[in-house]
């Protein structure tokens, strides 16, 4: 399922999955996917209900836990989001995505050192997980550990040279490290890739280069 799907396409898929769930109410995967599609369609309460039912039917359904946690995080319920990701980790301690999600929750709560530990664990498990490197860059920048922020950002850009967010994060990290020329090059690349660069950052960088 893609973000670009049209509402009409979603309605058709929802109809198909609802029929499967009606005929086979214990079908965990159908409920899981129906929950994902409901979320994509903006039917959040129904998405929660389906994902919770999937977990009730299969208490090892880690993907349902992760996706349900994302919904609660979006709603601002970080306690429930944390609980669900920890539940997934209890089943599979090497689930890198869950470590990233917990890191994001910790960072959101201002527990940046704990967030760094979570992201670091994630990249140890999966060195190619770009979201972990991107978030690690942000956390190191918040901690004013500029060399580490630049290193993490470079890892992200190496993995995905055309990631607009990775380019922007590298530009910011380089700015704080004092490398304004390279910061500008990466900022321009981020803009070229479609990233909406903060105008305040653009002005700050312009001042440094003047």
From TrEMBL:
Protein name per Swiss-Prot or TrEMBL: Tetratricopeptide TPR_1 repeat-containing protein
TPR repeats: 28-61, 62-95, 96-129, 130-163
Keywords for this protein: Repeat, TPR repeat
A Pfam short name: TPR_1
Record-linked InterPro entries: CellSynth/LPSAsmb/PSIAsmb (IPR051012), TPR-like_helical_dom_sf (IPR011990), TPR_rpt (IPR019734)
Gene3D superfamilies named among the record's database cross-references: Tetratricopeptide repeat domain (1.25.40.10)
């Amino acid at each position: 399922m893609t973000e670009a799907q049209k509402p009409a396409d979603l309605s058709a898929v929802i109809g198909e999955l609802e029929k499967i769930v009606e005929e086979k109410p214990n079908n965990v995967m159908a409920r899981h996917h129906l929950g994902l599609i409901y979320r994509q369609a903006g039917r959040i309460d129904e998405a929660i209900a389906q994902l919770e039912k999937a977990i009730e039917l299969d208490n090892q359904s880690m993907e349902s836990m992760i996706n349900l946690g994302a919904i609660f995080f979006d709603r601002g319920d970080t306690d429930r989001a944390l609980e669900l990701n920890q539940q997934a980790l209890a089943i599979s301690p090497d689930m890198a995505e869950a470590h990233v999600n917990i890191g994001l929750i910790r960072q959101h709560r201002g527990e940046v050192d704990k967030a760094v530990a979570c992201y670091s664990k994630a990249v140890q498990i999966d060195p190619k997980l770009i979201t972990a490197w991107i978030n690690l860059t942000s956390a190191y920048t918040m901690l004013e550990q500029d060399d580490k922020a630049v290193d993490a950002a470079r890892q992200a850009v190496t993995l995905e040279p055309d990631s607009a967010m990775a380019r922007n994060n590298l530009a910011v990290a380089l700015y704080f490290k004092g490398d304004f020329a390279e910061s500008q090059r990466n900022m321009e690349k981020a803009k070229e890739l479609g990233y909406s660069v903060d105008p305040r950052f653009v002005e700050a960088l312009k001042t440094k280069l003047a």
